[in-house]
Structures are given as C-alpha cells and as structure tokens.
Amino acid sequence: MSLNHTATSFSIGTIPINGRVFLAPMDGFSDLPMRLISRQFGSCLSISEFINSIDIKQGHPHLIKQITFSETERPFAYQIFDDDPERMLAGALKLRERNPDYIDINMGCSARNVANRGAGAGLLKDPLKIGRIVESLVKHLDIPVTAKIRLGWDVTTLNYLETSRIIQESGASAIAVHARTRKQEFSGTAKWDAIGEVKAQLNIPVIGNGDVKSLDDAERMMAQTGCDAVMIGRAALGNPWIFSGSQRQDQSKSELLRVIEMHLHLNVEHYGKIGIVLFRKHLTHYLRGYLTSPEIRKHMYSITDESELFESICNLVNQPELPEKS
Ligand SMILES: Cc1cc2nc3c(=O)[nH]c(=O)nc-3n(C[C@H](O)[C@H](O)[C@H](O)COP(=O)(O)O)c2cc1C
To answer: Counting C-beta atoms within 10 Å of the first and last residue's C-beta, which end of the chain has fewer, N or C?
Structure first.
C-alpha cells in the first residue's frame, strides 16, 4: 500500500506531510500513547485530543497529560475548542508556547455539552463567527491554522460549502470534513460526495473523514472525492495495524500481545498507575471477541497492577480454543 510513503505528499501551510492517512483526534483515546503507537504503524501526523480553552485558562490539572507530545510525533497539532473567540485565541496562544506545528479548531464535536453551548459543531450555526475565529487565530499565530467541520447542524442546514469557503477565505491552511451532520452524531453513513464538493471549490488541502475502515477505503475516499488525505477514527481503536494496511483480526496472538503490552506500558509511563485504569477502554477494543463474559470483563477490569494485568491478558488470549459444539 503506497498511501503512507516517505516523500512529501501534501503540505499544511509550510509543514510538509509525509503520507496521506492519519489518526483522527478522539477525546479520551488519541492521547500520547495511542498516537505513538499509531505513528509506528504509519499514521503520518499527530493531532491531540480536543482541548477546551476554558481548561487552558483555568489551568485544569488534567491538561498537562493532554498537551504533552513527543518530538518524534512531528508534524504535531493541538486541537482546540470553545465558543468564545477571545478565549480561544488566548488558549491557542498559550498552546503555541509549546511549539506545535499547527493548531486545529474543532467545529465538529457533536457532544451535547459542547455543541449546545455553541462550541464544536455548535459553531456551524454561526458561519460569521467561524470566520472571525479563524481570522483571529491566523492573524495572531505564526504557525498554520486548520479547522475540522461537519456538514452542518442537521439536514435542513447543510452549510459545509459556505463554512469551508469562509474557513479558506479567513486564512486556514487546511480543512478536515467529517461527512455527517451534528444531528447524525455517528449514525448513518458518511456522505463522502460532500467531501468531493468541498475539495472542488477550495485550494487548500482537504482531509476526508468518516467511515474509513481500511487503507483500501482511504484510497477509495481519495479517488472518489479528490481529497488530499484521510483521517481514521473509530476503526483505529484497538487496531493500529490499520495504518499499515492490515487489521487486528489478521494478527497473530503474539503480535496482538506485543502491541497491547507496548500500549499498556506507554499508558503507565504517561499517566502513572492510573494509566492501567485508563487502558481498559483500549483493552475493550484490542480484545474484541475475547472478553466473552461479564465475569471475564469484571476480572480484567479489576486488576490494578501492570504485570498482573498483562499476564491475565496473555492467559486469556493464549487459552486453547474451546472445541466447537456439535
Ligand atoms: C470517542 C471519540 C472521541 C472523539 N473526539 C474527537 C475530538 O476530540 N476532536 C475531533 O475533532 N473529533 C473527535 N471525534 C470525531 C472523530 O475525529 C471522527 O471525526 C469521527 O469519529 C468520524 O470518523 P470515523 O468514522 O473514522 O470514526 C471523536 C470520535 C470518537 C468516536
């Protein structure tokens, strides 16, 4: 698969990107450990989980884990969200001090507590405000600014052509399009044709997103829409192999265990002991098909020691297959 190669594939402003497929930002998942693992398998850039500029202003204690990134991750972007343009700018300037390669603005989060206060996908209801936010960040930051949108608030207000045009005219260096409305959240199918429509009217790179479940899908999305790159979200959970063109279910048990051990260990390194608890959500995805009973899940999720947990995972994965019932 030639999607993620070493020659420059496209650029975000002045930042060359060596590849065309990467991990989508996912709150609670795409932290430093998951990004590092995804990069090992070929994800070509890193974007943080979305960061609330209110948390930046208040110096939220969780922030330090959210904003830590590794030099090996470059190109690296912080994604920021808010409904208040001035607070967002202040947050972006604060993040700029940590020297990311660019800043991405979240205009797609569908979560009620975000969208209903006018942040995330809530911004789609106010394209003029989108313009003001992008313009202000572009003006005050000396690194590229990008945005990630959805198609609109709902099917009656599909304004992706208007918002994407405003985003480009306001100086953004790229745009990512999750081809669903806010109302859809994650239901239905992503409308890839809309990504093609956005690409056709813009000059800046367009990153397609929604329902990509393999590198073949990514290639199909690029061929169908002309988009410059593709972001993969849910299909990468417990499945970093996707970035190298294979899938979790195609891996040997030893490869599955190797990656789980590495990810678990990175989690503990990054978060300390709580990293074991935080790993459970990843484990659910890595061990799909293995956590077959509430008892097994309960046992697995009660362990708070790293080696004990890994030993239990090994025992579960390596248990002899049960004979088929006749
Ligand atoms: C658990 C979860 C958390 C997410 N958090 C973010 C986020 O922080 N920022 C963002 O732009 N999108 C976020 N998204 C949306 C994804 O980036 C992506 O747009 C969406 O999942 C569609 O892509 P997919 O079909 O490949 O999953 C999140 C999605 C999921 C499932």
So the answer is: C
